[in-house]
Amino acid sequence: AQTVTQSQPEMSVQEAETVTLSCTYDTSESDYYLFWYKQPPSRQMILVIRQEAYKQQNATENRFSVNFQKAAKSFSLKISDSQLGDAAMYFCAYSYQGGSEKLVFGKGTKLTVNP
Amino acid sequence: NAGVTQTPKFQVLKTGQSMTLQCAQDMNHNSMYWYRQDPGMGLRLIYYSASEGTTDKGEVPNGYNVSRLNKREFSLRLESAAPSQTSVYFCASSEVRFGNTIYFGEGSWLTVV
Predict the structure, then answer these.
(1) Using an 8 Å Cβ cutoff, are B94 and B48 in contact?
(2) φ and ψ at B4, to 5 degrees?
(3) Using an 8 Å Cβ cutoff, are A110 and A8 in contact?
(4) 3-state DSSP call for residue B94?
(5) What pLDDT, in 10s, does the model give residues A63-115?
(6) Partner residue opposite A97 with nearest CB, options B43, B90, B100
(7) Partner residue opposite A101 with nearest CB, options B44, B96, B104
(8) Contact between residue B87 and residue B30 where contact means Cβ atoms under 8 Å apart
(9) Min CA distance, A94 vs chain B (Å)?
(10) Is the Cβ pair A105, B44 closer than 8 Å?
(11) Cα dihedral: B24, B25, B26, B31 (round 10)
(12) Do B106 and A43 lie within an 8 Å CB cutoff?
């Protein structure tokens, strides 16, 4: 079974600085998707960024970028120029492409942004 | 564009009572899901439906039933609520044609006393 591990239960960063959240996963599949979701206090699940495993190029969305290392099964999220609004729980998730698209989630990392 | 809509947003139940959480999506997605989120945990899959007319168990299906009423609607039923089912429930939908991205509803807070 696929598993997703987030080894940092909590992280903090100063406003305007850069922070990296870690994620590793375990799968025997070669085609899959990886995601980072943000969950603010409102509990809404917001997609931050997604990566297709067949793409070597790391995905980027404005201040958010990933470091995807397929061989190492690692998928970290880098947040540049951190803002107070970035404070939230961040969940890493995996989805197998070949079957149902259901997501497997990590347990999350709580990010605090200090002014 | 409403996306994924789930009702009710909040509910308090007594142990043994039954209730149904309703979910509808307007994105013409084939796949729909019910997840629960407990403190310190990520989201765990209860049931999913890969297409209209099909449902499958996820990681934590015990105590729940689902119905895929049509392509838009996917309901979750608690037949006899237990305090262990106190949680936040999320409905979601996705479509392979749109890159497997899963879109979530706003969540339903359920407390069983």
Answers:
(1) no
(2) -110, 125
(3) no
(4) strand
(5) 999 999 999 999 999 999 999 999 999 999 998 765 556 788 999 999 999 99
(6) B100
(7) B96
(8) no
(9) 10
(10) yes
(11) -130
(12) yes
Nearest to B76 by CA among B44, B36, B104: B36
Give the DSSP letter string of A69-102: ETTTTEEEEEE-S--GGG-EEEEEEEEESSS---
Give the separation between CA A45 and CA A38, rounded to whole angstroms: 6
| Structure-block tokens of residue A4 | 């997703």
> A12-69 pLDDT, tens per residue?
999 999 999 999 999 988 888 899 999 998 889 999 999 988 888 999 999 999 999 9
Cβ–Cβ under 8 Å, residues B74 and B49: yes
Kindly state whether A45 is in contact with chain B, defined as any CB-CB distance less than 8 angstroms. Answer: yes
Say if the Cβ atoms of A102 and B96 lie within 8 Å: no
